[in-house]
């Protein structure tokens, strides 16, 4: 069995398994990954959206009911194009593109017969790009045993379809035609031919710097498994543990999968990270419990997660929220910082006279002992002699 035979696209399912994992509720949408393999195969998904965060995606295996390891790869790709010819595009005023000329598949082609065998025939193409590209080479692919066109003219088109010739009529000696480097979104090519043409691909080679940056997700697909790609998370700071990914970036036999239409995730629930009874999208302090949702300055951020006195300590944990006290001193340990404690709770601070009482008692004891000593000096001396 060849590699190509080992993979085939499956019909797209409509609903995910009801077997759940708590992390599945983080994601608002999911995509089915329509792939089936008979051997372990690295699958690559074009994510379309540019995202560098792995927390934005999760690959779920419906068979093992587990999250699968994956990597994101950033690489350049050509800007998408549409190709119209004057057979399918009546005077280029209306019509539809010929997908076969821009599908990057040399196995598909379009035939252009001779409309007049007595004189050279003309064939015009318009090539539209999603954004301006810079190019100095026009490339086309013919089917086998098809003779090259006789001549070519290459033009640049402005937004209002004004034509500027970049290469005047020239003989075609290869399937790569060079011309002065030009930046444009719209191009026009005119072939002159005296033999029937069968063309597979038509494009302008994009110079470095004008290619699109794109992100692709790779994971190892196993036989007899179905996969879902979960997207659009409500929590972007949650890491989902997975097993070892293997050398996905170095894989050579990669099966490419287009991103399917997203579906609403029936398992999705808005999270309440701090457990205060308010879901995150309605909680004015997502990470700090504040069931009263107090917001004295009405700025949309709860008082519990602000720092009114700008001492670097959030109000919820600041023992003096209105007085800067970065070191959080609290000598009496009553929960109120020394900078703002209205009444110290130490006994000697509440009973200010207590230290003086102690001093007085101690002084009285000393005086009493001194008096006793002075009154009975002889008796003490006698005991020593005896």
Outline:
The protein is mainly β. The protein contains three helices and 20 strands.
Kindly state the number of beta strands.
Answer: 20
Distance, first to last CA: 122 Å
Q: Largest beta sheet, briefly?
A: 7 strands, antiparallel
- CA gyration radius, whole angstroms: 40 Å
Unreliable segments (pLDDT under 50, ≥5 consecutive)?
Answer: 1-14, 90-94
Strand coverage percent: 25-35%
Just name the CATH architecture of the domain at 81-205.
Sandwich
Oligomeric nature of the chains: single chain
Q: Which CATH first-tier class of the domain at 81-205 would you pick?
A: Mainly Beta
- What share of the residues lie within helices? under 10%
Write the H/E string, N to C: EEEEEEEEEEEEEEEEEEEEHHH
Give the overall shape, derived from the CA principal axes: elongated
Instruction: Please identify the structural class as seen in this structure.
Output: mainly beta
Average residue-wise pLDDT: 80
Q: What's the CATH H-level homologous superfamily of the domain at 81-205?
A: Galactose-binding domain-like
CATH topology of the domain at 81-205: Jelly Rolls
Structural commentary:
This protein has three helices and 20 strands. With 386 residues, the protein is mainly beta. Among the domains are: 4-75 and 213-264, no CATH class; 81-205, Galactose-binding domain-like (Jelly Rolls, Sandwich), CATH 2.60.120.260. Strands 8, 11, 12, 13, 14, 15 and 16 form a seven-stranded antiparallel beta sheet that branches.
């Amino acid at each position: 069995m060849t590699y190509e035979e080992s993979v085939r696209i499956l019909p797209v399912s409509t609903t995910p398994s009801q077997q759940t994992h708590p992390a599945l509720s983080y994601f608002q949408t999911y995509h089915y990954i329509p792939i089936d393999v008979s051997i372990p195969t690295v699958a690559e998904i074009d994510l379309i959206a540019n995202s560098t965060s792995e927390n934005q995606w999760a690959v779920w295996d419906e068979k093992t009911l587990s999250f699968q390891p994956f990597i994101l790869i950033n690489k350049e790709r050509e800007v998408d194009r549409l190709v119209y010819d004057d057979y399918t595009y009546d005077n280029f005023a209306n019509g539809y593109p010929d997908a076969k000329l821009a599908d990057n598949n040399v196995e598909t082609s379009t035939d252009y017969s001779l409309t007049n065998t007595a004189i050279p025939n003309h064939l015009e193409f318009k090539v539209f790009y999603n954004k301006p590209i810079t190019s100095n080479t026009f490339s086309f692919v013919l089917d086998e045993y098809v003779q090259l066109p006789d001549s070519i003219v290459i033009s640049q088109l402005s937004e209002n379809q004004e034509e500027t010739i970049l290469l005047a009529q020239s003989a075609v000696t290869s399937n790569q035609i060079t011309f002065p480097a030009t930046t444009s979104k719209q191009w026009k090519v005119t072939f002159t031919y005296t033999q029937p043409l069968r063309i597979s691909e038509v494009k302008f080679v994009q110079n470095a710097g004008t290619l699109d940056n794109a992100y692709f997700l790779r994971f190892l697909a196993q036989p007899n498994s179905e996969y879902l790609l979960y997207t659009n998370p409500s929590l972007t700071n949650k890491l989902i543990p997975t097993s070892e990914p293997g050398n996905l970036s170095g894989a050579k036999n990669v099966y490419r999968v287009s991103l399917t239409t997203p579906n609403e995730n029936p398992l999705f629930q808005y999270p309440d990270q701090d457990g205060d009874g308010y879901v995150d999208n309605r909680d004015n302090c997502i990470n700090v419990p504040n069931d009263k949702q107090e917001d004295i300055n009405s700025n949309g951020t709860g008082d519990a997660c602000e720092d009114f006195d700008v001492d670097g300590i959030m109000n919820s944990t600041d023992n003096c929220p209105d007085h800067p006290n970065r070191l959080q001193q609290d000598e009496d340990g009553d929960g109120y910082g020394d900078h703002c404690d209205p009444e110290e709770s130490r006994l000697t601070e509440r009973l200010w006279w207590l230290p003086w009482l102690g001093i007085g008692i101690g002084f009285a004891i000393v005086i009493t002992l001194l008096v006793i000593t002075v009154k009975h000096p002889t008796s003490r001396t006698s005991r020593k002699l005896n």
